[in-house]
Fold:
Amino acid sequence: MSLALTLCLATVFLLAGIGTPVSFSMIIGAIVYLAVSGQDLALAGEQIIQGFYNSFILLAVPLFIVAANIMNAGSITDRLLKFCVAMVGHFRGGLGHVNIVSSLIFSGMSGSAVADAAGVGRVIINMMTKDGRYPPSYAAAITAASATIGPIIPPSIPMVIYALVSDTSVGYLFMAGLLPGLLMGAVLMAFNAYMATKLDIPKEPKTPTKEIPGITLRALPTLMMPGILLFGIYGGITTPTEAAAVAAAYALILSVIYRSISFKQLYHALKESAYSSASVGLVIGSALIFNYIIATENVPTAIAQWIGASDFSPLAFLLMVNLIYLGLGFLLDATTVILVIVPLFIPACRELGIDLVHFGVVTVVNLMIGLITPPYGVLLFVINGTTKIPLAGIVKQVVPFIFVLLAALLVMILSPDLVLAIPRMMGYQG
Structure:
């Protein structure tokens, strides 16, 4: 490791350790590297400009954020929840199942775990805790756990970013997330049913059969949104970026038709989207500089050569990388890991013959689990901030859900055919 890279990393860790945002820490560390190595400091700006200019797909990120915020501002989520209650609310642990199923459906619209937790999650937590039905900390924990499904079932903001750094197809990544997302939902529902029996939670009244068609009809435009997006992408009608624009427009049209969003709410949704997009953009921009440094230092090639010399099997490598991801999940957000750490492993994956679509899905699932892992679990803080449920109680209740999701992740690691089944049906050759 060169002196310049050593000082760069030391600067990043020092600044991040004293509470400086990771993006700022990385930018300052990159400037230190360029200065010490005698390179033009203007390279930092050049890497950011070229990186954004050459990455049309990145436009999908703010557009999906806009779509999610508009849906949360309108009554779209209310119609979705009523439909989920009618379908699964009457089973043991019914509102917990509603929580999970609503996340499965909402994930097909927003692609964001935080949007799921802050929008649908906040409403369903109020439903679960009303009249003491569920302990507040359990309701918060299952909401956080189910929100991790958001970026697995398409569309997915993290998968868009992974596609950028790995040069893989966004479309095939989206399709590969379908079965893993359903698997995550299934294991969470099984665990919720067990906990409902253990906590002796009474069943909810069953929705009268005659009301189900009307509830379904009112929710149908919302339920159609994932299908419209996937048909647009796989029918060759839209690119993933254009599909994100369609998602934002469709969410706005539905909100106007339902008369559920005012100009003030729309302004607030757009303002929040701008803030979130700028925050993500800062991380992406800093990662673009950092990736230039890593490439200059030839780090990915060195790692690939080390993997080859160490005679790792593909499975051993996948297990090792996932342990690294779990460790990084304690400290870093998913976007930073995908942009900075994942590119280091891509050459090794190619060297070992690991399919990059499979690797991408496993990576995103692992990093989503990191969103509910203390001490950096972003979803835990989001739910704590929106509901005021004590963080300590949420952390205690979420631990079993983490292990359940890790079991699902292990199945995905061991079964690449499960992950790649739908992409292969759509013509993927991997």
Notes: The longest helix spans residues 263-296.
